[in-house]
Amino acid sequence: MKTETPRRASGGLVAFDGIGVSAGIAVGTAYVLESGIAQVPEFTIAPDAVEPEIERFRAAIGKARRQIRKLRRKAEALPDSVLEELGPLLDAHGAMLESSRLAGGVEAAIRTRSINAEAAVQAVVGDLVRGLEAVGDAYLASRGQDVREVGDRILRHLTATPYHAFSVLPPGSIVVAEELSPADTALMDPSMVAGFATALGGADSHTAIMARSMGIPAVLGVTAVATRVRSGVQLIVDGEAGRIIVDPDPATLADYRRMAEARKRLGRQLERLRTLPATTTDGVRVALLANVELPRDTDTAHHGGAEGVGLLRTEFQFMNRPDLPSEDEQYATLRQIVESMRGAPVTIRTLDVGGEKLATALGERIAVSANPALGLRAIRLALKEPKLLETQLAAILRAGAHGPVRILLPMISSVGQVRAVRTILARVVARLRRRKVRIASPVPALGIMIEVPGAALTADALARECDFLALGTNDLTMYTLAIDRGDEQVADLYNPLHPAVLRLIQFTVEAALRNGIPVSVCGEIAGDPRYAPLLVGLGVRELSMAGTALPRVKQRIRRLAAGPATQRARAIMDQADEARIAALLDDFNEGL
Ligand code: PEP
Ligand code: MG
Q1: Is the peptide bond before 442 cis (omega within 30 degrees of 0)?
Q2: Nearest to 203 by CA among 495, 6, 569, 553
Q3: Which CATH number does 5-33+167-267 carry?
Q4: Residue range(s) of every CATH 3.20.20.60 domain in the chain
Q5: Does 472 contact ligand 1 (Cβ within 6 A)?
Q6: DSSP 8-state assignment for residue 30
Q7: In what order do the strands lie in the sheet with 173-177?
Q8: Is 522 a catalytic residue?
Q9: Alpha-carbon distances, residue 470 vs 157, 294, 516 (angstroms)
């Protein structure tokens, strides 16, 4: 929604470009996050745990190295003045990660003292820093800070520690960090955090999704941001253009404040659509539901006029805690969400961790994988650890006694997996009934995410095994095109309008319609008005998106006619060229 372009200040405007992942404009004070970790636990480990502990440490070092290499590659594209400052620093950190003194020292400490890796890292970093300071040379002593930073980087990977610093933020803060995990983002309070900017992260990463669902303007992939911005300076985050402006002059500031005001006005106008149905001009009804990442998102869902929850990502219950939530605890949270939807259906997806969404509570259960996105995640983990799944299913069934729920399974790739879950579900239902526990009656519908190309290609067979399909176009795009959705370096290649992705969507929708079961789209394209004519034209009648995105999608649907949209979708499906597809779609949207 580009309302106007900011006037360029006559003086040098310091601006950095990245990927705008959450539209909106924030003006506030920079708060640069330090990655320091205050406390790490120290405990003794059993002799047979020593080798796995060393493996865990090596995996953390590997991740830290990859992170540095990535930052280094990205830094090459920066202006020389920035590169001169950032390059040597990253090189120094990279060299330390390769250094045998640090890595060898930690491994030796784990072996000889039988302590956990975190404690060993802290001990060795402490020794190295003290050694540097003891020489009495100012330059060497200052290198101690680098050693600490490298140690913290390793510790963050070992503990997957989120930034707890958010609790002390003053209102109007703009968080600036090298990287924010979905768990970090979940801790942000939108009434305090006006916006954020990070050096790493792509448009459909879960961090980006959370920013959109909280309505926090955000720009990711701004390489120099964490080193070039100081805490306390004034910042503008333009989440639409993907740009941050440091210490703006009064004219620029006034321009942006006007743009922010215009956005607010538009938001108020859209609010009038809240109680109106999403019906096309030729009478086709489309159900609009909300994606919910955190319990508080149900307020946004209501505000946007959602007809229910099309995707409840339950991962939040497993993040930022050292242990697993009990059945009672999960039930209490789910019940609260179900009740807050006041009779509207809630589609609860079972745990989808792994890949970039790591849950601290799961710890060792998810072994380190060279390709986490292809590893033990989502339903694969659930079927390997059926107790986890049983506990969650029991909590969902119990919450279903307080309002309508549906169960949704992530990352399904075969009919065998659906059948295995049905067997487990029947067992849990029987156990709860035996114990006379109140559960949903009838047993909730069981649906599956179509987000793996293999699942889309066998959607007809899968549709016979379940009650509804939900197209997860974020992962479907990633796996079809072999492009990491969270990697800003290949963000330009990530394109849900690629004909291969569209054919899989079309095939899935047709399979659902042939089998007489509902199909929805709950990936991020559902919340982008640009895609609405294409999805409606392909036969999709249910869309689930961030509550904040709902009004604009509804407005677009109410302006379009399904007949012409279907014809345009057919024309689009005849194309092989991504640019031509985009042009056909944009041309259709312009006429609305
Ligand atoms: C998807 O992959 O499109 C999806 C909705 O699931 P998630 O974004 O949680 O992976
Ligand atoms: Mg997914």
Answers
A1: yes
A2: 495
A3: 3.50.30.10
A4: 287-590
A5: yes
A6: E
A7: 14-17, 243-246, 234-238, 25-32, 173-177, 193-198, 218-220, 19-22
A8: yes
A9: 33, 20, 14
Q: Measured between alpha carbons, how far is residue 352 from residues 191, 388, 394, 563 in Å?
A: 28, 12, 17, 37
Q: What's the CATH fold of domain 47-159?
A: Enzyme I; Chain A, domain 2 (1.10.274)
- DSSP label at residue 533: H
At 20, is the secondary structure helix, strand, or coil? strand
Pocket test for ligand 1, best of 207, 309, 313 (most atoms within 8 A of CB): 313
All CATH 3.50.30.10 domain ranges in the chain, comma separated: 5-33+167-267
Neighbours of 85 (CB within 10 A): 14
CB 206 within 8 A of CB 228: no
- The answer to whether residues 346 and 403 touch, using CB atoms and an 8 Å cutoff, is yes
- Residues 537-580: tens digit of each pLDDT: 999 999 999 999 999 999 999 999 999 999 999 999 999 999 99
Amino acid at residue number 570: R
Residue that the structure tokens 């974020």 belong to: 474
Cα distance between residue 424 and residue 430, in whole Å? 10
Query: Any idea what the Cα angle at residue 387 is, between residues 385 and 389, rounded to 5°?
Result: 80
CA of 586 to the centre of ligand 2 (A): 26
**DSSP at 441:** S
CB 80 within 8 A of CB 133: no
- Confidence band of 7 (pLDDT split at 50, 70, 90): very low
Task: Check if the beta carbon of residue 510 is closer than 8 Å to that of residue 476.
Answer: no
Task: Kindly name the residue from 93, 206, 402, 498 that is annotated as catalytic.
Answer: 206
From start to end of 411-494, where are the E strands? 445-450, 468-471
| Residue nearest atom 10 of ligand 1, based on CA coordinates | 475
Identify the CATH number of the domain defined by range 287-590: 3.20.20.60
Which residues in 369-484 belong to E strands, given as ranges? 405-409, 445-450, 468-471
Strands 243-246 and 519-521: unpaired
Binding site membership of 377 for ligand 1 (Cβ less than 6 Å): no
Strand 19-22 with 25-32, pairing: unpaired
Gap from CA of 475 to ligand 2 centroid (Å): 5
Q: For 16, what's the count of Cα atoms within 13 Å in the CB-facing half-sphere?
A: 27
pLDDT tens digits along 514-525 = 999 999 999 999
Query: What single-letter DSSP state applies at residue 304?
Result: T
Q: Please tell me the pTM assigned to this model.
A: 0.79
Question: Which residue puts its alpha carbon closest to atom 6 of ligand 1?
Answer: 472
Structure tokens at 451: 């987000």
CB under 8 Å to 424, separation ≥6 — which residues? 386, 389, 390, 393
pLDDT over threshold 50, residue 5: no
Pocket flag, ligand 1, residue 352 (CB < 6 Å): yes
Coil, strand or helix: which one is 495?
coil
Can you say whether residue 473 is alpha, beta or left, with left for phi > 0 and alpha for psi between -120 and 50 degrees? Answer: alpha
Torsion of CA 532, 472, 477, 562, to 10 degrees: -20
**Residue 57 CB coordination number (10 Å):** 23
- The CATH 1.10.274.10 portion of the chain extends over 47-159
By CB atoms closer than 10 A (0-12, 13-18, 19+), residue 393 is buried
Between 316 and 100, name the one with better pLDDT.
316
